[in-house]
Amino acid sequence: MVRTLYFNKNEALLIHRIIYHLIVLALLEFNFSIMSLRFMTSSFLDIAIEASKEAGELLLELFYKELKVSFKSDQSIVTEADLKTESLIIKHIKDNFPHHSVLSEESGKENHNSDYLWIIDPLDGSTNFSVRNPFFAVSIGLLHKHKPLLGVVYAPIQDELFTAENNKGAYLNEQEITVDKSATLEKSFLAFCNGRDLNSREQVIEIYKDLKIINNKVRQVGAAALELCYVASGRFGAFIMPGVNAWDVIAGALIVEEAKGITTDFENNPFNVMSSNIIASSRSIHESLLKFVRKT
Length: 296
What we know:
Helices cover about 45% and strands about 25% of the residues. It contains seven helices and 15 strands. Strand 6 (about 135-145) and strand 7 (about 145-155) form a beta hairpin.
């Protein structure tokens, strides 16, 4: 049985005021949370830029020196430069955000059960670096609850700093960048890379073979994060990679997205930290690229 409550004029006015103030408090709390996240994101970006620049300076100091080189179980290279720059970047993060989790290529994951996860490749393009090929970079990404908040990629030889924050655009040395919206499959520069496992290598050979027949500007350059940034800035039309690791691409993928490009896996699902492959491109050629990778 439903009972109807009746209030006199003063009681109704009091209830109205209480409801009004509760709504105002809720809105203030919501706006404060949004403002706090925006402030924190800017702070995160400042630290990521500072860490990447200092790591870049260290890489420049080490570039022409004879360094100890060792090989991992998958035969990928790790140099003293990888380890020293990784330590430098992790220290920056721990000093400023001691409760955040960190995933880095050389050290693995340091888990603090935080909603924030920094993903680091201290030297993207280690093989290039080891033979004094200047195409390498520092890559730093930050996730919040598994979603990218920011990406920073710094190429010290070229002194080019690529940055992006979620929903805030992509930038090269503070100038906004966009993908090449007129890119074509036949004429654009197309870059590719691959994981170390046999399946990824076999897959990329098939992709390369098919694309090379129709486009002579298909290249493997050797630094995935930087190649993604070249897509974001319109220098490359696309980047394709089976067998990705999160540290290879997470920062660069966000930069492409914020540059009005598109990143998916080979099944056309939106790219995320758990994806095992990636296509990053201008939207004008994405569907055509999907057809090639689906044949492999």
